[in-house]
Amino acid sequence: MIEPATRNVGPxxxxxxxxxxxxxxxxxxxxxLVTIFVLSVMIGSTSxxxxxxxxxxxxxxxxxxxxxxxxxxxxxxxxxxxxxxALGLSGALMQAISRNPLADPGIFGVNAxxxxxxxxxxxxxxxxxxxxxxxxAFAGALIVTLMVLALGSTRQGSSPVVMVIAGVCIGAVxxxxxxxxxLTNSQAFDAMRSWNAGSIVGRPLEVVxxxxxxxxxxxxxxxxxxRPLTAMALGDELAIAQGVRLxxxxxxxxIALTLLAGGATAIAGPIGFVGLMVPHVARWIVxxxxxxxxxxxxxxxxxxxxxxxxxxxxxxxxxxxSVGVVxxxxxxxxxxxxxxxxxxxxx
Amino acid sequence: xxxxxxxxxxxxxxxxxLSAALVLTACSSGDVDPAAAPGDTRxxxxxxGTIEVPADxxxxxxxxxxxxxxxxxxxxxxxxxxxxxxxxxxxxxxxxATYASATSLAASADExxxxxxxxxxxxxxxxxxxxxxxxxxxxxxxxxxxxxxFSLDTEWKELADDIAEAGNTTDALSAQxxxxxxxxxxxxxxxxxVIESSTxxxxxxxxxxxxxxxAIADIGxxxxxxxxxxxxxxxxxxxxxxxxxxxxxxxxxxxxSTYDVITYPVDADGQPTEPFVPxxxxxxxxxLPAVTSGHALGVFCPGNNSYxxxxxYLESLDTALATLPAED
Lengths: 347, 328
What we know:
Radius of gyration of chain B: 22 Å
Strand order of the largest sheet of chain A: 1-2
CATH topology of the largest domain in chain B: Rossmann fold
Number of strands of chain A: 2
Mean pLDDT of chain B: 86
CATH architecture of the largest domain in chain B: 3-Layer(aba) Sandwich
Strand order of the largest sheet of chain B: 5-4-3-6-7
Number of helices of chain A: 13
Low-confidence stretches of chain A: 1-13
Structural class of chain A: mainly alpha
Largest sheet of chain B: 5 strands, parallel
Strand content of chain B: 15-25%
CATH class of the largest domain in chain B: Alpha Beta
Number of strands of chain B: 12
Structural class of chain B: alpha/beta
Mean pLDDT of chain A: 83
Shape of chain A: globular
Distance between the termini of chain A: 19 Å
Helix content of chain A: over 70%
Low-confidence stretches of chain B: 1-32
CATH superfamily of the largest domain in chain B: Nitrogenase molybdenum iron protein domain
Order of helices and strands of chain A: HHHHHEEHHHHHHHH
Number of domains of chain B: 2
Oligomer: heterodimer
């Protein structure tokens, strides 16, 4: 299979940097992520000195501030890391499948499916803790995405356009149903407020471990379909000529993005812009090569998420702002600026 | 009869006193007024003006926050708007029975079924809901029965006075007030030195609280502890939102170590309330000086908008303070 490594693909694409520069950029992105990860452990809504944070991790005692680091900030940071990776990669997959640089996983109804499932769990089944309703969210996301997949599949093959339309329609219907249910059950509305805003506060590591194997599987699937997706960006006919099996590639990619986006949404609630913006930026940096886009997205998305979360902890001290709110405020203007740039990426 | 005079309605005071003088000549202040003949009325000064109400109302409907205070005073509404199940569960059994025997007019105060309300043929309607919601149904309510409205900023003691006055349950109110004052005096006398020398903080977590967050309570029962009992509790700055409205992340639990005594919510059996359990399970909470030294007190707060529930709160606070180590 021929990888269109040196060709500019799609409207607005620009000359892609060489492999050495892409690798260097990847290292920089990794350093950025590590730095933000450390800052996320160090900075919070209460003042704890860096030395205490260091001791909390490497010389643990029963000090109260050390508990704050080990029990709250570290798990929160790890949750942010995992959710960020999942959102970034799922967004990259979504944009590749739909050939739409402004697509995000929500278009396939992931958020709508997760939200209505959580509403039912909280409002009518009495589920109150995040460990309980995250599985409803995950199941809801999976079911709705499978419905979208089924609607978008015809005898002639799968159609991204039909899938997107189906996802938008199902999302609208489920969104209305969710609001109706919440209006009739104020307790459900209250309990879901934080989840709806998108937050990584109060999620113990126990919510992450069961989903990690699914994420690992999704990442492997993502790597498998990266090369065919790059070829598909040239058009279906050219991709077929290069031996790409379109339907198989799309199905595998959708399974991967659903596992990733569904899991991330289940843990943190719907967090916008991360899955949309980061792959867009990654494509702008590295060009149309999906493997590189995936790699950059995996590093840059958690950086954005954690940086936004840090910001949310300190802006209105001692209170906090949900990370989903911050990413929207940070993401929207940045995305507008990117879109307005002539060199903004296309597919 | 005594006329309620609301300070911020000074313009209506003279009319209220004039009405009071007229009514006083005809009525006594008993819960059951033997002298009241059918058709006798009294004038009540409320947030919707001076209202003529039956001297001894028999078919009272309560809307919004008036339901539980009216039942607490021994009132038996024929119709009411639903309270949350959790609030009803905190009532004494006899009050739960009273609540259950009334016709429920709506799941919440802003959805009152006016047709059903009218079918109950009430002779008095007591309302405490947001002003805008009341204005939307005020004319319809007035057409059904005399309607006495209290705005949400009515302080709980004033609300109890007003409801007792309108519902003709002033004897029950007097008994509750006496018990309240006695309980307060007992706590202040018994624990005076501790109250004087200690800093307190009341922490809270609701079922609607975001995961991983708690709040410092300065409203509700905490307000009673601070303003009536005299505990040295944190309070929001003048004009600022209550501290309780500000969610704090669990990592800030460590900042509670600056207080001598922590009070936290427990149920009637003395166990931490379900929403608060995640807090007491944290290592930070377990390591707090107040917790390790026995200065973290679970206190039961069954409500803070009627004397009966507040008295039960004071009983729990009394019991909790008694568990403080002897050196205090």
